[in-house]
Write a structure and sequence with these properties.
This is Coiled-coil domain containing 169. By secondary structure, the chain is mainly alpha-helical. It has two helices and no strands.
Length: 94
């Protein structure tokens, strides 16, 4: 619509009004399509985030296993320090 006319449709042909309506419908469709694309992208990013969280879970399990191994090695070192004459005892107890 031309600027300065406001909402006054006098003197505007019905064909012109139909064209304006079609343009508005087209713009609305574009906005709706954009919204769908954004929602799809959000879903992809959330799925990726969940996948990354699973990687974090793996890291946590790995760190727990390392901590257990450290404790085990520290216990073996204590045994060696208590009985230095039998240094191979820690290997035989495995």
């Amino acid at each position: 619509m031309e600027e300065g006319r406001g909402d006054n449709f006098y003197g505007v042909s019905t064909n012109r009004l139909k064209m304006e309506l079609l343009k508005e419908i087209h713009l609305k469709d574009i906005v709706q399509l954009s919204m769908l694309e954004i929602r799809h992208k959000i879903a992809e990013l959330e799925a990726k985030l969940n996948t990354d969280d699973e990687g974090g879970e793996w890291k946590g399990r790995y760190e727990t296993q390392l901590e257990k191994q450290i404790v085990s090695l520290e216990e073996k070192m204590e045994k060696i320090h208590r009985n230095p004459s039998d240094r191979l005892s820690s290997i035989r107890s495995v």
